[in-house]
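Q: I'm building a small set of examples for a reading group on sequence design. Run inverse folding on the following structure and report the sequence directly after it, with nothing in between.
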């Protein structure tokens, strides 16, 4: 079985406007979806959320603040899943709750080193 990285992209400024009840309901959808993947023994790493702050390291030892969440779309989290093919990984990604907030899932195969 191959491993695939799911990168969750959305406009996270929408999440900051959510009420506590809305945030809890969305979190339940995520936990249910990830739980269903885990129940099939296909979840390698649970979808951890990334902090809004960070640094970008570039060549010549240049370090800048970022990424910036004020841009339209940013990566807010990731998961690693097991699947037999890209098609199966894409089918798993189609159930992601991020689509309820206008987001997307980037599906990338992890190359064995």
């Amino acid at each position: 079985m191959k491993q695939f990285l799911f990168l969750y992209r959305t406009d996270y400024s929408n999440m900051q406007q959510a009420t506590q009840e809305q945030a809890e309901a969305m979190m339940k959808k995520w936990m249910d979806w990830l739980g269903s993947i885990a129940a099939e023994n296909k979840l390698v790493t649970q979808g951890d959320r990334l902090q809004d702050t960070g640094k970008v390291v570039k060549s010549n030892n240049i370090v800048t603040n970022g990424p910036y969440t004020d841009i339209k779309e940013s990566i807010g989290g990731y998961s690693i899943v097991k699947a037999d093919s890209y098609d199966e990984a894409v089918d798993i990604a189609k159930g992601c709750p991020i689509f309820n907030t206008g987001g997307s899932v980037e599906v990338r195969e992890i190359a064995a080193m």
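The chain has three helices and six strands.
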